[in-house]
Design a protein that fits this description.
disordered N terminus, transcription regulation
């Protein structure tokens, strides 16, 4: 489950509201290019009001990337990702990952832009690699059982699948974009119609 808190402190913002604005600013200016003063100005509150909720900018980053990561890891624990044929489990993970990306767009965007310059970023990248390994293992299992065409390298398949998923952050705009289910339908149709071997039909 995504990391959230509704602790309410000083008037104007609870932690979730503060986090929403902080993540937006991080995405616009970059984490390194955002100061606590910048955040305070955007929020219209004092820096001390921000410190009431969090210890500093790094905690806001940690909360932001963990919200995305927790949502993605919840996907691989769903029944559709844990039972059935590997190709079907893989399709479930890809489909639900698209939905998570669309529904948590600012947070996933922040996650995909971290570069490992801080301890929090390195921890996030480590968790991302764990998720990537889960996907790669599903691809390999699907190839072994004959569900995925054998002429495509499993490691390349995994990278291409999530390259397509992750590219959504560059063009999707919630106000005028299709619903998450429509985006997920399109991605899985394009990807899995090409991936499935004749034996998987």
């Amino acid at each position: 489950m995504a990391e959230r808190t509704n602790r309410r402190g000083r008037p104007g913002y609870d932690l979730d509201g503060l986090l929403d604005v902080a993540v937006q600013v991080f995405n616009e200016r970059g984490y390194d290019g955002t100061s606590m003063e910048t955040l305070a100005q955007r929020l219209g509150i004092t820096k001390s009001a921000i410190y009431y909720h969090v210890s500093g900018k790094d905690e806001l980053l940690r909360l932001g990337v963990n919200r995305a990561l927790d949502a993605l890891f919840a996907v691989v624990d769903e029944p559709g990702a844990t039972s059935g044929k590997a190709i079907d489990r893989l399709e479930h993970v890809v489909r639900r990952s698209v939905q998570v990306l669309v529904e948590e767009l600012p947070f996933v965007t922040l996650l995909l832009r971290v570069r490992g310059n801080t301890r929090v970023e390195r921890q996030a990248l480590s968790r991302r690699r764990e998720f990537d390994h889960v996907v790669s293992d599903l691809v390999k299992e699907a190839e072994r059982d004959g569900s995925i065409r054998p002429d495509v390298d499993p490691a390349l398949t995994s990278r291409l699948l999530f390259g397509m998923v992750n590219s959504i952050i560059e063009w999707y705009r919630p106000a005028r974009g299709p619903a998450s289910e429509q985006v997920a339908d399109a991605v899985t149709k394009i990807a899995f119609d090409g991936l499935r071997s004749g034996a998987a039909d």
